[in-house]
Amino acid sequence: MSGAPGREGVDMVSLPRPVGEYQERALAAPPPYDAFNCSPDNMRMTVNAVPVSTALKARWPLPLGAIVQPMADESKGRQVPVVSLGSAGIIRCKRCRTYMNPFMTWTDGGRKYKCNVCHVHNDIPGGYFSHLDHEGRRCDVEQRPELAGGTVEYIAPAEYMVRPPMPPVYFFAIDVSYAAVSSGLLHSVSATVKDLSAPQMMVVAELDEPFLPLPDDLLVNAADSRGVLDALLTSLPATFASNSVVDSAMGPALQAAFHVMQHVGGKLLLFQAAVPSLGIGKVKNREVLSAYGTDRESTLRQPDDPFFKRFAAECSRVQRVHPTATTCLVLKLPVPQVSSTLL
């Protein structure tokens, strides 16, 4: 069913998953709404009921898992409550490390709590103490987001950091092959990034074992070097306007970007138009029309080069691919699949 002309219809994706059907004349009432659990947009199970015994699970053919999307609230414009416990730090169970949540039970007048996962009794820091009401609930539940809801965001103290916070690093890997130039990708990317002194170009001819020509001097501060970056993005389309090379070395570019950012972390944005055909990670022509509709079709969707799978286990990135022909995305699938990012 569609909406009225000029108006948006119902967004079926945003609707929560049904939790079951109830008969009109059922003896028991439907279960009450539970505000303590997080939204199904953030986390939901693949099924609403799980086997209660090992024997039943062996006969149960349905996949059991959880779909987790921590930033779903922000993408939908909802604010997630921020929790900062100050000197008390993040309160977690001393045995299983479960975070403080609405399902903890309180004992000893509020001085201890019982973990809802492993049932171990834990002491409460002095700064987190609160008296209990006549039902055994803390009197400050409504003032504590971590006790009143299932989705919160903690401000992590220093002991949760592997290293001090680093400034954000962005590394742009841009395809300059004939396909990228003719499709307009190079011009569009250069103009887009620019909206966000002459640069020096360095060419690395080694494609099987790429290295950094300047290991310690390839990252610059965007604010201090804005003029150089603008000049680079302005000159890129003109520099490669007459480029007729159809080959592309995507694998070596990825490896070089990883070497640049591996010590500080960052985000790699890859803009690719041509099929990778040079160096590590090159793609062979796998388009076999006779295989479609047969048992051999599944082989076209399985990568035969382990480079991308190994590389994906080392870093995380967001990639955008703009192909002008068959580019065999199945070979690049392990990169976002393993690193939980977007392709």
UniProtKB/TrEMBL annotation:
Q: Using the record's annotation, list all stretches that form the Zinc finger Sec23/Sec24-type domain.
A: 90-128
Q: Which GO terms describe its cellular component?
A: COPII vesicle coat; endoplasmic reticulum exit site; Golgi membrane
Pfam families documented for this protein: Sec23_trunk, zf-Sec23_Sec24
Gene Ontology terms for molecular function: SNARE binding; zinc ion binding
Specify whether Iron is a keyword of the entry: no
Gene Ontology BP, a term = COPII-coated vesicle cargo loading
Residue span(s) of domain Sec23/Sec24 trunk: 196-319
Q: Where in the cell is it found?
A: Golgi apparatus membrane
What keywords is this UniProt entry annotated with? Golgi apparatus
The record's similarity note reads:
Belongs to the SEC23/SEC24 family. SEC24 subfamily.
Q: What is this protein called?
A: COP-II coat subunit
**Record organism:** Haematococcus lacustris
Which taxonomic lineage does the organism of this UniProt entry have?
Eukaryota, Viridiplantae, Chlorophyta, core chlorophytes, Chlorophyceae
